[in-house]
Write a structure and sequence with these properties.
The chain has 2 domains: about 40 residues; about 110 residues, Immunoglobulins (Immunoglobulin-like), CATH 2.60.40.10. It has 3 helices and 7 strands. The protein has a 4-stranded antiparallel beta sheet with strand order 4-3-6-7, with no helix packed on it. Strands 1-2-5 form a 3-stranded antiparallel beta sheet, with no helix packed on it. Strand 1 and strand 2 form a beta hairpin. The protein is elongated, with a radius of gyration of 30 Å.
Length: about 180
Amino acid sequence: MCFAIIFLAFQTRRGNKMNVMRFINAVTALALLIVPSGFSCAHDPVSEEYYLDIGRVRGGEKPSPPPCIDGAVMDGTDIAIEFNCTRTIDPDTGNADNLTYVFYWSSEDPALFPGELSYYDELFYLGAVAHADAGPDMKVRVNPGGYRGVIYFWMTAHDGGRESDHSNVVHIAVP
């Protein structure tokens, strides 16, 4: 398209080479200004704290109070994690019907983590269960496979937009 404009300018101003050169220089300068401006939209990556700012998240308030775990017990080859004491609700709806309980685990004591953000790291993600699927006994079963040693568990509640603070941490020794 630029060549067509330059050609038309050349045809219409055939007798005046100076005007054609000025026009070509102007088009070139304009092109040099437009091309880099397309790259000026690329921003430097932001820190993860940027996305943890509550004011930047839609959906109202995070679920509260944090869920709690009653305990973890060996049940045959499985570990049963009981969370009957959980009274977490979504403040936006006033109930727990839309909540999903997210479970985490670690072989390292979370008290030794470098910070609170580590509790939510996907490295420790175990799985999730919807409130409606948790059943009346509010219990989930985990199969540790061939792992032997101490396992730490904690959980959060998620309302589809925000995740609650983490629960208490329980541990169990798998023989």
